[in-house]
Design a protein that fits this description.
By secondary structure, the chain is α/β, with parallel strands linked by helices. The protein is 35% helix and 20% strand. It has helices at 22-33, 54-57, 70-79, 84-98, 101-104, 113-125, 143-156, 193-200, 244-251, 276-280, 288-293, 300-305, 320-332, 348-360, 378-392, and strands at 12-15, 36-39, 131-135, 161-166, 178-183, 186-187, 191-192, 204-215, 218-229, 233-237, 262-265, 268-269, 283-286, 366-370, 398-402, 415-418. Helix 3 (70-79) packs antiparallel against helix 4 (84-98) and helix 13 packs across helix 14 (348-360).
């Protein structure tokens, strides 16, 4: 670690697999530069105090000695520091910053994992360190607690250089500026977060940078930065009028304003020679707007087959193999018996199932499904939700889904964006 170069203003993540040596290197670095070092484990052990063993949490009232409260312990350590007045002022500041007031009167052994992290961070920051090394900051925390801790660490990054030791790329917070990969006890070359993510993550299917869309005085999208990578499954949420449909239209090549925005689709910037059909052939799409506008009086089989050509009607002569593919997808959605019936004579729910089969028929890499279960009865909703998990959740498939009913999201959803 003698060659480790971390400069003022940088926020660094040491990333490596289990037994890669990253924790040992972090501890050695902290010792050499005099940084505060915190390690989190998925238990109360390792804190250096017998009262932190988990079983004593449930035997609180059988302890012979009255255990200290979090506030008492913090005030005691602040008073014993080299500059007690400064440490006590710092404690007041951190109490406000971390929202510690409800925690101060609790016994240490009763603190939750999230509260314990707040306590340990506060304890380490009483002396106002310029560098703080934190090992496994997110281990054992639920999603809400992870988000809160990320916000707390980001607020600290304004005055403190943070070095986080992480095992998973997904845990790297967005305020991190540089990454140092660790393998076999050796630190690799320090790289910017962006370069590291491009190196280790799947390719970006959608990338938007500072995208702003206005209609008159009304701002629909305001400097949106968003990256969707291959194999991710996104829930797109927001109130009516929040911009969801506008956002999807930029992706589906239906909105000409996309050419004035910094948008990349499938690794290619918009406006660099790609055609609308180059984009559409990679996307399976269904939405309430498409359904309302789809006024094609043709057999349902033709409607589904037209998805192979991204047209609203069947204007080509498909091969028998292509028709058989359409029939298979109609069977998947439980509408094989509707193949020869005119689309406009079907019920609204049957039409929606036809349009869903049309979106899936070409087996695209990206599915954009806006209210896909809209108008379906309970049996059909369960059937379609299962199909979404089966096909959209397959390796390499990417999904963007909009619904106002959270229970409709398939289990494969792993990311969310709220407008």
């Amino acid at each position: 670690m003698e060659t480790l170069d971390i400069r003022k203003g940088e926020q660094v993540a040491l990333v490596g697999g289990n037994a890669s040596g990253k924790s040992r290197l972090a501890a050695a670095f902290a010792g050499r530069c005099g940084a505060n070092y915190i390690t989190f484990r998925d238990s109360y052990g390792g804190y250096g105090d017998r009262n932190f063993f988990m079983q004593q949490r449930w035997n609180l009232f059988t302890l012979e000695d009255d255990p200290p409260s979090a506030g008492e312990q913090l005030r005691k350590e602040a008073a014993a520091s080299a500059d007690p007045d400064a440490a006590l002022r710092r404690l007041e500041e951190l109490t406000v910053l971390f929202g510690l007031t409800p925690v101060l009167d609790k016994y240490l052994v009763t603190l939750s994992s999230g509260e314990l992290r707040k306590f340990q961070l506060t304890r380490s920051l009483l002396g106002g360190p310029s560098v703080l090394v934190i090992d496994n900051p997110f281990i054992g925390l639920d999603p809400a607690a992870r988000r809160l801790l990320t916000q707390l660490l980001e607020s600290l990054s304004a005055t403190t250089t943070l070095v986080l030791v992480l095992s998973r790329v997904a845990e790297i917070p967005p305020f991190i500026t540089h990454v140092i990969p660790v393998s076999d006890g050796e630190a690799g070359e320090k790289v910017t977060l962006g370069d590291y993510l491009e190196r280790v993550l799947p390719p970006a299917v959608i990338r938007m940078r500072d995208v702003t869309i206005r209609f008159g005085e009304r701002v629909i999208l305001d400097r949106l930065n968003w990256t969707v990578r291959q194999g991710e499954h996104w829930a797109l949420t927001g109130a009516n009028g929040s911009g969801k449909s506008t956002l999807l239209s930029l992706i589906c090549a239906d909105n000409p304003r996309a050419y004035a925005c910094d948008i990349e689709l499938f690794g290619r910037p918009r406006g660099t020679g790609e055609t609308i059909w180059d984009i559409k052939r990679r996307i399976g799409f269904v939405s309430p707007e498409l359904h309302r506008a789809f006024q094609v009086d043709a057999p349902a089989l033709d409607i589904v087959t037209s998805g192979l050509f991204d047209t609203e009607g069947l204007y080509r002569h498909p091969t028998e193999e292509q028709r058989e593919t359409a029939r298979r997808w109609m069977a998947e959605f439980g509408i094989a018996g509707l193949a020869e019936r005119p689309f406009l004579c079907l019920s609204s729910g049957e039409q929606r199932l036809c349009l869903l089969a049309r979106a899936f028929v070409k087996d695209p890499p990206l599915y954009i499904l806006d209210e896909p279960l809209h108008g379906l009865d309970e049996d059909q909703r369960c059937r379609v939700k299962t199909l979404l998990d089966r096909f959209c959740g397959a390796p390499g498939k990417t999904l963007l889904m909009v619904t106002h009913y959270p229970e409709e999201y398939p289990a494969c959803i792993d990311h969310s964006l709220t407008l």
